[in-house]
Design a protein that fits this description.
Elements lengths: L1 H15 L18 E3 L4 E2 L7 H15 L3 E2 L7 E17 L5 E16 L5 E15 L4 H29 L2
Parallel strand pairs: 1-3, 1-4, 2-4
Antiparallel strand pairs: 4-5, 5-6
């Protein structure tokens, strides 16, 4: 009976866990980097106010992994700077009337991690891209909501990719 209860307890912990697991647990950052600042992304796209969505997603991803501390820029060992450099929208599915049924949004980002004490670039990647497809209904309000939801999901995907690449030094 005790083994069954213990097994149920372990199963409950597994099921209720957040599901996040850093692949390989790898951290190739220099040993003196214990904290990172993530300033608000620069936004060079025509899409207004998406920089905070992406910044918040990256901060959440780094906080969740607990590999390094996220701190204000003045207290950080390194700073992760990113710029949203491009956005594209492409119709991927059309109705019989040749209007869009599904659209793909693609975001392009330049990012780099710089050590504060000496300005050394520890990691850098240009034109990192993520995309997401969303449905088009023909209603401007609904379509804008679908696009915003796709951007939020895309930001979470990009945050995970940035996180993994920073620590794996790809």
């Amino acid at each position: 009976m005790k083994k069954a209860l213990f097994g149920l307890f372990v199963l409950t912990l597994v099921i209720s866990g957040c599901g996040y697991g850093f692949r390989n647990g790898q951290n190739n950052l220099p040993p003196d980097v214990h904290s990172i600042a993530v300033p608000v992304f620069a936004n060079n796209t025509a899409e207004v106010r998406i920089e905070t969505i992406f910044t918040d997603a990256v901060i959440a991803q780094f906080t969740r992994s607990q590999i390094v501390r996220i701190v204000p820029e003045g207290e950080a060992d390194a700073v992760l700077r990113a710029t949203l450099v491009g956005i594209s929208l492409t119709d991927v599915s059309l109705t019989t009337a040749e209007s869009s049924r599904q659209r793909r949004i693609t975001i392009y980002v330049n990012a780099k991690l710089v050590r504060v004490r000496d300005g050394k670039v520890l990691w850098k990647e240009n034109k990192l891209r993520q995309n997401r497809t969303y449905l088009i209904t023909g209603s401007n309000v609904s379509d804008e909501g679908s696009k915003r939801m796709a951007i939020t999901e895309l930001a979470a995907d990009l945050a995970e990719t940035l996180h993994d690449r920073v620590f794996e030094n790809f």
